[in-house]
Amino acid sequence: MKDIEVQSPPDDTITSLKFCPKADFLIASSWANDVRCWEVKENGQTVPKAQQTHTGPILDCTWHDDGTKVFTASADKQCKMWDLNSNQAVQVAQHDAPIKTCNWIQAPNYSCLMTGSWDKKLKFWDTRSPNPMLSIDLPERCYCADVVYPMAIVGTAQRGIICYQLENQPSEYKRMDSPLKYQNRCVSIFRDPKKNNQPVGFALGSVEGRVAIQYIQPETAKDNFTFKCHRSNGTNVQDIYAVNDIAFHPVHHCLLSTVGSDGKFSFWDKDARTKLKTSEQLNLPITACCFNSQGTIFAYAAGYDWSKGHEYFNPQTKPKILLRSCTDELKPRKK
Question: What homologous superfamily does CATH list for 4-325?
Fold first, then answer.
């Protein structure tokens, strides 16, 4: 597809990809216990900058809003803060089980790190203190989470969804069952340009090739809908794959990308309810994706996700991260 490969990718499957909010630097966390950072040049070429490690697989990574620090959540039950200028990493959070998600919250009157774990706890950290500012019990293990101030969404095992409001102090706002029948895999919050770009809802992906678009306060019942994706038609049977990641476009808030275990990515316009593009199929599942802050570069990571069991694992096929110029492909459909 003529997409540009990132130089020196991790040695094992990538769990999370994030572009810096301030400049074109890309980070990727992986099952190889490491997180790496690259500078992306204007021609799309990448320069490896630095990397850090944990003692277990890193399940999530995210940027500080100032663009100089990165947070990493690991199966070693720790979350670290990595200062890119000094290339030093310090532990800033701790759970009793692997930490699945980390999200930075930048509010007008406070800032903190939110971590979600398989110990069924959501914790909020000031990063300067070893103890959390706040710890919230979850009904089940945390599987996915997203933050767009003043909203946080957490998806748990047993198809739970909890919405939190973050003003003044995080507190539970609404609890619901997933509109999808199968396990939550990924969640991404979307904004509404008509409401001052405030977050109004989320897209939820499941293991069953389906995405739900949900508004927290829908104006009509028809606002919420689900659609099928990442499926392939064989003879007599339909192969159904997990939706591994969802990313919303930073400029056109109606546009989103989904990536799946079928080795394809798709671009969608949720307001027009149409698919804009589906990629060719890679020989590996796509496990993570993100857009840069201008929405001109789409990054996606290919690597084995064990969805077909150990017998389909081929150690010869190495993970890769690809960059795609997406300015021309991603434009909202005219109504």
Answer: YVTN repeat-like/Quinoprotein amine dehydrogenase (2.130.10.10)
